[in-house]
Design brief:
By secondary structure, this protein is an alpha+beta fold. It is built from 22 helices and 20 strands. The strands form four sheets. Strands 2, 4, 5, 6, 7, 8 and 9 form a seven-stranded antiparallel β-sheet that branches. α17 links the parallel β15 and β16.
């Protein structure tokens, strides 16, 4: 692509609409695909919103933000010019016209060229790193630069931030010894969530070995970023533009181009074959939504939900930036042959501002069903007088099923419900007095298996309601057999989603179990369907149904609120459905007919009080809360200091925040491996379960005392 000289800012309103000449054409029938999407979205999506000016203006915002999330390249005059037809984009789409997408892209390329030229001059001038000023790294809600002076000042601070971050990286992190994780600086705080230049060169070992100056290092990245953006072709822009319309309907609906469909994995999930993770696009990066149980990433333990992949290397080869790539292209790069090595450069979930990245080396492998399967163990709790109480824990990371074996009626077909039933029976033989069903990080899976698992703990009745365009369907557990009817807790967190929320909600509504965990679960209460549009047209991934509790409330957005909440680091991070733009709202349907048990209502106040007291006196948990509060402060801070001394101090203080992990809190005694990986959440849950058992025994022995249990 040839980059033209930027038209002066004062003439920005007169920028010509360049048409499609600068973008490499594809062999797709773009007009027919665009028309098909325009007419399909309002018909087949669950909420059936009309394709009108509302959809059009929101699609405009989403597309522009996808090109310039940090609002650093476009000028306000560009936005004003492009927005003149924003309310009519849906009409143009019905005609198969996507020229707006090309026009906006071409203007962006003009601005990128201008900023590269500005950067070269500014880096030659240098920076005074002793001046204490601030840079706003989170510009999602900021206005675009109003004029050239404001534009230049923004970029001066942006470049200074990269320069300081490079110095901090050399000073604080370069001496750290790492094995499979190598900590480096992104050198561009703002670009953690933007169209960034922050990835390309720092992922280049060649640049590191060349020992470039910070100025040279920064310019190499910008030039590589420009090359990446110039590689966009018509199919890539088509997917991004049409997805902007589908994402207005809800964040899980998407247009997938023919190339993207080829890489779409089973179960309508964007899973990364080879490392075991699920991704979604996030402001130019590939954000990890979920670590698949039993996969290489799960076994390795270094990647976490919320991490953002920004570059990929094959073994010892030079890393390649995937920033701003369509997800299908990133997936292709990450996939590979079994037993080969892939090196991922990621921005840690704990570092929302993107000050640092880490390199994680993984050996590609298949997801091992045995490691994905449910597991159980017997835990002992000291109840005084030298006595220990046996409690069972079943960890269920996924509602899995061997669909192929099941469809052929194979007797030994592997299923989550079958495994959980077997584990319950084994635990009962061990003499357990209570059971914890651990659904933390369980992102869902088979709806049938979730219903079957719930049915193991109740006699029979409805489990979930499914709303489609044709009406509401109630899905029941029809098996009257109860495998376990004793004291029970379901343990959840913000990463418990979809089918796991259905099971937790059902047992909560029946008052069969107490729910313990984060302030709420993930909140994904929708079902997506892949709808092919025809040969070489791609597919629409559309939300076509919603999940509802048997009490009538949706699990969408609000998820499931635990009966007893234990503070978590996930509560301060953007990992739930409520963090997604255009998420479907919470609503209700008519409650199903069901009869709840007596439940634990009378016990809950005292159980909660005892739990709070224990955690207040738990030094390890209080240390975790201190770190969590600092993590929250980091998430809420939208600016970063441009004083080198301040940044060095901040870097040293914040390194330990990367140690916060879901369910396992690191202590100060790093040499004690057992202590260092202690699961305080599970331990506290076992104490709560033991309290439940004590209260039930008191109630059985002295029924008249039972009402007073909640009054203390």
């Amino acid at each position: 692509m040839t980059i033209r000289t930027l038209i002066p800012v004062c003439m920005a309103l007169a920028l010509p609409m360049f048409g499609t000449a600068d973008v490499e054409k594809s062999d797709l029938d773009v007009k027919k695909i665009s028309r098909t999407v325009a007419y399909s979205l309002p018909v087949f999506h669950l909420n059936q919103l009309p394709m009108d000016a509302y959809i059009s203006t929101n699609a405009f915002d989403l597309y522009i933000d996808s090109l310039d999330p940090a609002r650093s390249y476009f000028l306000q005059s560009d936005i004003e010019m492009l927005s003149k037809d924003a309310q009519n984009l849906h009409k143009r789409l019905r005609k198969g016209d996507i020229e707006f997408a090309i026009d906006a892209y071409n203007i962006l390329m003009e601005r990128i060229q201008n900023r590269i030229e500005f950067s070269e001059k500014q880096l030659e001038k240098g920076f005074d790193v002793n001046v204490d000023e601030e840079f706003v790294w989170d510009r999602k809600d900021m206005a675009w630069p109003q004029n050239e002076a404001e534009w230049d000042d923004l970029w001066r601070k942006r470049l200074k931030n990269e320069y300081i971050a490079r110095l901090v990286s050399k000073e604080v992190y370069s001496s750290e010894e790492t094995n499979s994780v190598e900590t480096v600086s992104t050198n561009q705080v703002v670009e953690a969530e933007t169209v960034s230049t922050n990835t390309v060169a720092e992922y280049s070992e060649e640049l590191e070995e060349a020992n470039l100056t910070p100025e040279e290092f920064i310019m190499e990245r910008y030039k590589q970023f420009q090359l990446t953006m110039e590689s966009f072709d018509e199919e890539m822009l088509l997917q991004r533009y049409l997805s902007s319309f589908s994402l207005v309907y809800d964040p899980h609906s998407d247009y997938m181009s023919p190339s993207s469909v080829e890489d779409f994995d089973i179960n309508m999930k964007l899973s990364l074959v080879g490392i075991g993770a699920m991704l979604r696009p996030d402001d130019g990066t590939a954000r990890i939504v979920r670590i698949i149980p039993g996969g290489p990433a799960d076994r390795d333990g270094q990647l976490e939900a919320g991490d953002k992949i920004i570059a990929v290397a094959q073994g010892n080869e030079e890393p390649v930036s995937i920033l701003h790539w369509p997800l299908y292209k990133a997936v292709r790069l990450i996939r590979g042959e079994i037993d080969t090595t892939v090196v991922l450069t990621v921005i840690p979930a704990s570092d929302r501002s993107g000050t640092r990245t880490k390199k994680i080396s993984l050996v590609r492998d298949e997801v091992k069903l045995e490691e994905q399967a449910a597991k159980s163990e017997v835990k002992e709790v000291d109840i005084g007088n030298g006595q220990m109480r046996k409690l069972g824990v079943i960890t269920l990371p996924d509602f899995y099923a061997d669909f192929n074996a099941t469809s052929h009626n194979e007797k030994d077909a592997r299923r989550a419900s079958t495994d959980v039933r077997r584990l319950i029976r084994e635990l009962m033989k061990e003499g357990i007095e209570g059971l914890v069903l651990d659904l933390r990080n369980n992102g869902g899976g088979s709806l049938v298996e979730a219903i079957e698992c719930a049915g193991l703990f109740i006699s029979s009745g409805p489990i979930v309601q499914v709303k489609e365009k044709r009406g509401v369907q109630v899905l029941p557990d029809a098996d009257p057999t109860v495998e376990y009817d004793g004291p029970m807790i379901v343990l959840v967190n913000r990463l418990s989603a979809s089918a796991s929320e259905i099971l937790a909600a059902a047992l909560q509504d029946y008052k069969r179990a107490i729910i313990v965990g984060d302030k709420q679960t993930h909140g994904k209460g929708s079902v997506q369907t892949l709808m092919p549009l025809g040969d070489r047209k791609g597919s629409l991934k559309l939300t076509t149904a919603g999940f509802y509790r048997i009490n009538g409330g949706s699990t969408q957005l609000k998820g499931v609120t635990p009966d007893i909440i234990i503070p978590s680091y996930l509560d301060v991070m953007d990992v739930g459905e409520d963090s997604l733009e255009h998420a479907l709202p919470w609503d209700t349907v008519r409650p199903a007919m069901y009869r709840s048990l007596d439940g634990f209502d009378a016990q809950l106040p005292l159980l909660t009080e005892h739990s709070n007291e224990r955690l207040e006196n738990n030094e390890e948990f209080q240390l975790f809360l201190t770190r969590r509060d600092r993590l929250k402060e980091r998430y809420e801070t939208k600016t970063v200091s441009l004083s080198l001394s301040n940044r060095l101090a901040e870097a040293e203080a914040e390194k330990e925040l990367d140690d916060i992990q879901s369910g396992a809190f690191l202590t100060d005694d790093e040499e004690d491996d057992e202590q260092a990986s202690k699961d305080i959440i599970l331990d506290e849950t076992l104490f709560i379960l033991s309290d439940m058992i004590d209260m039930e025994k008191i109630a059985e022995q002295s029924p008249l005392l039972a009402p007073n249990l909640s009054e203390n």
